[in-house]
Design goal:
The protein has 1 helix and 2 strands. With 63 residues, the protein is mainly α.
């Protein structure tokens, strides 16, 4: 069963008010997925950029 209880839902956001009209516009799902991907890429880039800095700080504090 999907999110609406009647059928398999393949989209993140999906809300039918009747059988022929979806209340969530078609552009919303790709934008949500794109925002998640951009956020994950940003977090990974931040972690990779920060990792050598934290490693260098730990090396200098030990001496």
């Amino acid at each position: 069963m999907g999110l609406n209880g009647s059928e398999e839902c393949q989209f993140i956001l999906h809300s039918n008010c009747n059988a022929s009209y979806d209340m969530v516009p078609a552009w919303v799902n790709p934008v949500v997925v794109l925002a998640l991907v951009v956020s994950l890429v940003g977090l990974v880039r931040f972690a990779v950029a920060r990792w050598p800095l934290s490693r260098a700080m730990n090396d200098t504090s030990a001496t």
